[in-house]
Amino acid sequence: MKKIAISALTALFLVFGFTGASSAASTTYKVQKGDSLWKIANKHKVTVKQIKSWNGLKSDNIRINQVLKITKPAAKSKAKKATAKKATAKKAPAKKTAAKKTTAKKKTTAKKAAYKTMTVKATAYTAKCKGCSGITATGINLNKNPNAKVISVDPKQIPLGSKVYVEGYGMAVAGDTGGAIKKNKIDLHMPTQKKALNWGVRTVKIKVYY
């Protein structure tokens, strides 16, 4: 019985040993005397270019007993997966950039929309009218600054200090008040009486910026 058991173990060892050797042999080849890359390639049904690539050979020179890989190394597939993951990681910031651009557009839109539109009746005045000091309610000296774009407003409708765009007049500052200036009425400062008379009374649209 012992002899039979030993024989069986020996047989198994030889079978598995041979299989392992065959597997190793199928993936590598030891260079023999008289071998060339062309011969080895033909023998294993691959190309010279493939053998050189798999073994990192820069020339066709080989030496006796040199072990060459004759099949494509499995490690390359892992390298490709790693490269694909890196490529995916590189693409990710593009989404963040797009999100930043969208946020920037929203902020710009919000800034542009920071005003209210009103339709008002606009009259005109000069700093040199009777009883006028030439100094506005906010301290602007119109005598020293005759070309200043200043309008009188009702502070309940338009806060003093606001920037106001007046149709036909331009950008101005709400820097003065007046007893007759109530609700949707404004009074525009003009550098001369002639320009004030030419303006007259007009119904215009204005934009009050916050």
UniProtKB/TrEMBL annotation:
Which SMART domains has this protein been placed in? LysM (SM00257)
User: Does the keyword Ribosomal protein feature in the UniProt annotation?
Assistant: no
The secretion signal range is 1-24
Pfam families attached here?
Answer: 3D, LysM
Q: From the UniProt record, which GO molecular function terms apply?
A: hydrolase activity, hydrolyzing O-glycosyl compounds
Give the span(s) annotated as Disordered: 80-103
GO CC, sorted alphabetically, is: outer membrane
The record's keywords, sorted A to Z, are:
Signal
Q: Which SUPFAM superfamilies match?
A: Barwin-like endoglucanases, LysM domain
- Domain LysM per the UniProt entry, residue ranges: 27-70
Please provide the Gene Ontology terms (biological process) for this protein. Answer: peptidoglycan turnover
Do you know which PANTHER family this protein is assigned to? CELL WALL-BINDING PROTEIN YOCH
Put simply, this protein is called Cell wall-binding protein YocH
- Originating species: Siminovitchia terrae (Bacillus terrae)
| Gene name in the database record | yocH_1
